[in-house]
Structures are given as C-alpha cells and as structure tokens.
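User: I'll paste a sequence; please echo it back and then give the predicted structure.

Assistant: Echoing your sequence first, then the prediction.
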Amino acid sequence: MARPPTALPTTTVAPTGAACQNNQIRVEALGYGAAAGSVAETLGFVNVSDRSCSLGGYPGVAGLDAEGNQVIQATRETTSMLGGLQNGSKILPVVSLAPGQTASADVAGNDNPVGTATSCPYYPSLLVTPPNLTQPTLVTKVGVQVPGATVRGFPGCSGLSVDPVVPGSTGRAS
C-alpha cells in the first residue's frame, strides 16, 4: 500500500531519491521549548526542490556571539531531554523528503548556571549546516525572543548539543 504524499518514512533502509544537495534544502527555526532548565530549538530542513531527496545524520550547529563570531560548536547526541531518537535507539534514520516535506533536529542547551557562575552565555544566532552538506544558513530567531526579556538568544550554560535529523517537524523520532 502506498503512503500518502505527506507521510514521512522512518525507516533506515534505502531512501527514496538521491542525497539532498545544498540548493534543495532550506533551514528554518521551527520552535523553542524548555523544561526543568533544559532548552531546545527545533530546526527544520525543508526540501524546496521539485525532486525527492534524502538526509541522514547530524547537522552542523555553531553558536555565534553578538558580533557573528563562532564561539561554540554543538556536540552530537542521539537523544536530548526534548528530542532525538527514542527507546534507546542508536540507529540514525535516513529521511526521504518529497518536495515540500520537512525533516528536523533539536539543538539542546541549558539555562542553569554551572558551579559558581551566576549567568549563562546566550547565542543570538546559530550557524546551521544540513547533514552531509556544505552550505551553512544563519538562523537568527532562536531561543528567547520575547519582548522585554533581559537576555535574548539560545542559552548554553552546559554547552550545546544537536540530535540527528528525524522525519517530521518535531525534532523527535516517533
């Protein structure tokens, strides 16, 4: 039975379409969430071409300071508090993307100061490179963006980590 065109496969078998190319993928921030000091920004990878392609593995994510300098590189984790692979899985999915479909990955951080620190670094933007591609995208609307907030951006008290790309737009494999 064929899948409806909006369904995304979660299999690790051979994907539909060749590997995505730089000009086929648009990167965007899909949402920010927090729980018990852990924070996550879900990053979307949208196929903007007219051909199916596939993504698998980890995106590259760097935290930038207010001047646009790269100051931290996210480490790779299979699971974070708010996203990633589920049920102890260590198998990275290969996500087939039909035109217009989205894959996602969560960037995780923490807003609880460590040790004697009284504040955390906040990264006003992230530099994101889709898995196995070479063209980075500057993502500027990340983390805390509410008017009147004393700090804005993505907090990184304990550094940053990134989960693998998964099907859909939640950053969490089902």
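The two ends are 21 Å apart (CA to CA). The domain at 23-167 is CATH 2.60.40 (Immunoglobulin-like).
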